[in-house]
């Protein structure tokens, strides 16, 4: 179940369909899908000499080329194909869709193909972005489309369809027909589970797979049941870069880094083409430092020996090692710059101090000292507003039910420090959407006396790293699942029941997965023989994008009056 | 990895449409009806349903001229690969024990090496001509013309392949060099100590062989340095793998930015023309207005 390999194989198979010089046409959805798993040079090797967008109308006619189209079967892309086929620019067309193509769409395409240029029409189910071998994203970022409808309890109609199709393609590409379980507290998880179950029944021919002893399991979770994980600073490489700089389809924008070299203004972090990143993506900050030093030393060694070209022998060796050396030198300067920037941010914004308090708030119950520490951080001018806000949110979540809760007082302090109304309002928005009454289970393990004593004991162990004490809630959930203790009442099945330990497990987060969870899954995959887990989400969030989502939906539901809400509800149901 | 073919269904649909169109003939098909009366010949040209294009040859059907060169380069590279394979075999034989045999392959190896080096040079020269007169093969300054872009990408692909081939060749050369040096060192070791007469005779022979080997090594080193030049030249053409420049989305963005630039340029020109037209027409409008007021 290696998602990157799967999507690569799909693309290879597309390229094999037509020999000779080719153009590869993509749409807005398939461009990131293809870009994260393969490169321009790989496509050139397969004689795909041009790559372009299907909706680019400026393309020239080149009948000597064969055209491979890979698009999502959306209205826009079908329309673009219709326009293309009416007046074909290329000799032959091979059409590949990321998902099930409706018969009406096929008919439309067939009708306009009067030049009979279409040679193949295939469905290749790569309808997701394979971020890591065991992590996928549906790239439903706020900028593109919100996941939520009118509140955090219901879907935006288009988003639900997109998510159902995306998950279906994951299942088909991995050849899994799973049982589906969902988190009880989440109406959206249930809705998605039911829709998907329906879709699987509709496309039963596609899902006609050989029976297995223990069926695979799809576990649909809701981000709101664990709001803590995305709020914490992360100290492993991939997660840290995403938190502090943002990773967008494997690209990192470095243009705000002081004195950045022009060729490093934007960099690529790819599991596929960057061996150093593949090795270090899950390493923690301390190990990463040692690793990067070793990497830079290796470069120095090679550089020195390359500098010393005295004999023909040296020259020969240099030429031989030059491509490797060039690759190495590019990659070293990339990672050294990136880690340098992370280090700069960490020291300038006192991130270690912030993180220590974050971890305390996430893991231990200790109100008096937490409050004291938080108050002094809020007044510390070196600490960024966003960190102050997030610390207060963590406090508000942990001590939500605590008798001498001081959230109001902290909010006042934040306002005094100059944080805007909109930002401060997020604290209540989070409590309303992901507070204790919204969640299931005991996230902070502080809701009963037994849990509390366990918690205190956990705090006493004290051997772990203070910055990585916290484990995502998912770790607990999976532990229970593998021990067969995950309650049906809390995680109901959509259809059918099987409590055996599954061999293949797909986890999906409505509202976005995190790289912290991805690291956990990678770790479990490496350490648990016989179990293969794949993690996915509507997107991959960091603290900023998670809070943006909450802010957007709470602003929207505040603006919709109850009457208007009812009206749009009707309109939606009527299919307007 | 599930896939599902919809080709048959599509073809069914298509043939049913074609039939229904045929039954409606000779009323012309699709959007050509509008143009039919105006420029009939042109309409015939682009809208012949499933036309074989044998009577009218569109320019866009013809591949660029350098496609022939490309095929030549492909053949050249195949030949290169075979030559390298042959050389490798000779190297193996040369390294087999049995000293006098070594001399026999000597000439062959030298000849083949020279041949390979010149084949490399020929390929490299030919690759330079791909894409016609595309200048600045650097990765920035994207050519705006699509055909140029195609040519440049073909050039990149071929250069990458040739580079791989050349590094393979150099690896083989240097490993051969290493093993023959090793043999020499071993032999120098043996030559110390006491010998029988026969052995001394053998050593004398060996001296000649050693001189021969030295020449051989010099020869290879020369060919390697010659290749180094070719290699450096190729390096300017290939993409650094795994960098932003190798990203598909980045390249698409660059292309779209450059075409968008072109479109903006066009609309600007169009706007200017319209502006000029409206200036030109204004006086006549005025006269009409004047006429109207006078009524």
Would you write up a description of this structure?
- Chain B: Belongs to the syntaxin family.
- Chain B: Its main location: Golgi.
- Chain B: It is a single-pass type IV membrane protein.
- Chain B: This is t-SNARE.
- Chain B: Keywords: Coiled coil, Golgi apparatus, Membrane, Protein transport, Transmembrane, Transmembrane helix, Transport.
- The complex is a heterodimer of chains A (576) and B (295).
- Chain A has 576 residues and is of the alpha/beta class.
- Chain A folds into 3 domains: 3-124, Sec1/Munc18 (SM) protein, domain 1 (Rossmann fold), CATH 3.40.50; 131-226 and 467-541, Rossmann fold (3-Layer(aba) Sandwich); 237-348, Syntaxin Binding Protein 1, Chain A, domain 2 (Alpha-Beta Complex).
- Chain A has helices at residues 3-16, 30-35, 40-45, 75-86, 103-112, 157-173, 187-202, 237-244, 275-280, 285-307, 312-348, 351-363, 367-378, 385-398, 407-416, 421-434, 449-461, 473-482, 515-527, 543-559, 562-573; strands at residues 22-26, 48-53, 62-71, 90-97, 118-124, 129-132, 135-137, 179-182, 217-222, 251-253, 266-268, 504-510, 532-537.
- In chain A, strand 6 and strand 7 (135-137) form a beta hairpin.
- By secondary structure, chain B is mainly alpha-helical.
- Chain B has a domain at 68-136 and 143-236: Methane Monooxygenase Hydroxylase, Chain G, domain 1 (Up-down Bundle), CATH 1.20.58.
- Chain B contains 8 helices and 1 strand; from the N terminus they run E-H-H-H-H-H-H-H-H.
- Chain B has helices at residues 7-24, 32-36, 40-47, 66-95, 99-129, 146-191, 197-235, 248-294, and one strand spanning 3-5.
- In chain B, helix 4 runs parallel beside helix 6 (146-191).
- Chain B is elongated, with a radius of gyration of 34 Å.
- Chain B starts with a strand and ends with a helix.
- The model of chain B is unreliable at 25-40, 42-55, 134-141 and 274-295 (pLDDT under 50).
- At the A-B interface, helix 1, helix 2, helix 3, strand 2 and strand 3 of A face strand 1, helix 1, helix 6, helix 7 and helix 8 of B.
